[in-house]
Amino acid sequence: MRDALPESDVQEIIARVRGRMAAHEGADRPAAAMQAAASVSASVVETGDGIFPTVDAAVSAAMRAYTYYHDMGLDVRHKVVEAIRTSMREHGERLAYEAREETGLGRAADKVVKNRLVTTKTPGPEDLDPQVVTGDSGMMITEYAP
Predict the structure, then answer these.
(1) Number of independent structural domains in the chain
(2) Shortest CA distance to 129 belongs to which of 117, 115, 112, 144?
């Protein structure tokens, strides 16, 4: 069994690690993310663009939006999802390149393909439409239920 390190050695290691961390703090974060964080922390006012001064404010707004959206009928949900899909078809490529630039992760070309795929293949409210199937054995109705 090895002897424990002397307290002075432990403190020296801690000091070196803290020094290295301080030297690299923020170095791995993309500039855009750092600017966004600075602008949010500098302002405590909601901008109306989905940017909130605190996580709690964002969560509260998300809960209000969810409740509002949940109470809408399927016709409105169809329109909302189609508007999102239309916007993604129009802006998906630019968003892919911006995501790559901001995060420094992945390949922009792959993100373009992914954005196209999720825009066209992600199920929407059309999966909630009532369906009726009839045949020799009878009829089956599948309906949306809360």
Answers:
(1) 2
(2) 144
